[in-house]
Amino acid sequence: MINLEWLRTFKSVYETQSFTKAAKELYISQPGVSLHIGSLEAYVGYTLFERISKKLIPTEKAKILYNFTLEPLLKLETAEQTFHKTTKTERSTVSIGMCFETFQFTLEKHIPNFDFNVIIRFGLYEQMFSDLDNGLLDLIITPRKINLKNLNFEAFSKEKIVLINGTGTDTSEFKNLIKENKIEEAEVWLKQQIWYSTAGDMEHLNNFWKANFNRHPDFKPNYIVPNICSIVRCLSGNSGFSIVPDFLCKKEIANGGIEIAWEGNNKIENTLYFGERVKNNVQNEIDKIKEIFRNENF
C-alpha cells in the first residue's frame, strides 16, 4: 500500500525541484526526503526525477502522478488545517456555490475582509441544488430555481445575454443588415467572423442563436478558452464576437474595449436568485454575502 507521506514529499519535491527545499518545507531531514522518493520510485517502478544542472526535473511519469494526486492532497491538507485542534475562537464557515465568472465579478475582491471562513464551489446548477438541499452548500447564486420544500429562492437581479464584439471589429455591415431587418443575411455574415466560447458551456450561444435565428448554431468557435472572463479579456480592443451576460463586460464596455453589437430581436434576460435552505445556522454570514451581491451593478 502506498504511503501518504511519500506522496506529500513527492509533491513538495516536484514543486520546489529540490530535496533541500522540500526538507525545509516539510520539517524533515534531507536523507528522509531521499528515502521517501526512493521508496515511492520503487513502489511505482519508475524514475520520477532526473538531476539536470543542479535541478530536479520531473519525468513524464512524475507529471502524470502529480496531476493525479495534487487535488486529493490539497483536500487532505485543507481537512488537516480545518480540524487541527486550536485555541483560537472558532469562525463560522459558509459554503457558497456559483459560476466562476460571477465569483470573479462580485465576491473575489471582498474575500480578504470577511470575518468568517468562506468555501467557494463551482459546478453545474443541478449539482448545486442537490448540495444545497443536503447541507453541503449554504448559499447558491443561480439563474434557475426549483421547487423543494426545504429550499427558498429569492430574486435579486437580472442578467441580459447579448452579442458582444471587440472594438477592433468592423461591424458596419452587420449593423446595416440588422437595421434593414435582413436577419438571415446577418446570420450568414456572423458565421464568417471570429468567435470565442468557453470549454464546456455553450448554453448562452445556443440559446441566443435559437431565439434570434430559430436554429442551433452550425459553426464551431475559433477559440475555446477556460471561462467568460477570459473571453472578455481576449476580445477587449481586438476583433471577434461572443455571446455573454452583459454585466460581465460592463467595465470593458465603459473603457471602450468592447461593444454590445446586438441585444437580439428576441431579448434573453435571466433572473438571478439567491438559493438557501429554509433553516441554517449561518444566517448572519449569508445576509452579508447577499448584501454584497445587491450592491453590485448588474
TrEMBL record:
User: Of which family is this protein a member?
Assistant: Belongs to the LysR transcriptional regulatory family.
The protein's UniProt keywords, in alphabetical order, are: DNA-binding, Transcription, Transcription regulation
The record's SUPFAM superfamilies line, in alphabetical order, gives: Periplasmic binding protein-like II (SSF53850), Winged helix' DNA-binding domain (SSF46785)
| Pfam families associated with the record | HTH_1 (PF00126)
What InterPro entries does the entry give? LysR_HTH_N, WH-like_DNA-bd_sf, WH_DNA-bd_sf
Q: Which GO terms describe its molecular function?
A: DNA-binding transcription factor activity; transcription cis-regulatory region binding
User: What PANTHER family does the record point to?
Assistant: HTH-TYPE TRANSCRIPTIONAL REGULATOR, HTH-TYPE TRANSCRIPTIONAL REGULATOR CITR
Report if keyword Transcription is assigned.
yes
This chain belongs to the protein called DNA-binding transcriptional LysR family regulator
Q: Ranges for the HTH lysR-type domain?
A: 2-59
Question: Species name for this entry?
Answer: Epilithonimonas xixisoli
